[in-house]
Request: fold
Amino acid sequence: MPFILLISASLTDQSSIIVDGYSFVPNVFSTSAYEFLMSRGSDIFRAYGISVFITVFGTVVGVAITLLIAYPLSRKVTPHRSLILFIVFFSILFNGGLVPTYLIYAQFLEMKNTIWALIIPGLLTNGYYIMLMRVFLQGSMEPALIESAELDGANEYRILWHIVIPLSTSVMATIGLFTAIMYWNDWTNGMVYITDPSLFSIQNLLQRIMQDVQFIVTNLDSSNAGSALQEMPSDTVKMAIAVIGSLPILLAYPFFQKYFIKGIMFGAVKG
Reply:
């Protein structure tokens, strides 16, 4: 219902919003909000491309890193397993803070105004997913299965590729979905590390457009404020921005819903 209201408001004339308020059916149908956004269509399509790239690349690499860390931690024979588990768990509870993090990425690693500033921070903050996958692997893989593979001459890489990954598709899909949503909705890293407009993700670009609209509205000359406010689709643009920013995830969600629910149930029971 809220999303229906969101779409309806984005397709309503600005003057109707001011006079009649919001409704589930547009009182006066208008596409002016989307026409306003399409005036920056090239920027929006470029930002969409950047968001798709960082979401796909970050999700694939993030899930791979999570698996490569969680699998050894699920094996009792791994050296210093307890110490590594403590470090992973500690990283879930505490972080270094915004300023030290900024100094590391922006100055030490020189990632400011690079596409990697939108990807790397998300790869290094997945301690919860590591613990989730570790518990899943411990519960789904019998030690006898691994021992049998080792007796047949399989090394760790072959065990990982032919046994662990096929048994972990559901939890990998769940973690992949969570990671993809995190990357798609992330605007904090773009706000902190990106000042080049050509590197804006869709969330950062839409936020910048919304700020521009708000600036125009608040700085209108008072003598022309009445007519100008009705012509400027300020409220409907905000709704259209929300629709454009969330639409890809909403379209993809039905295909991954079963994994999403399974991940929530598994985390609640096993966590």
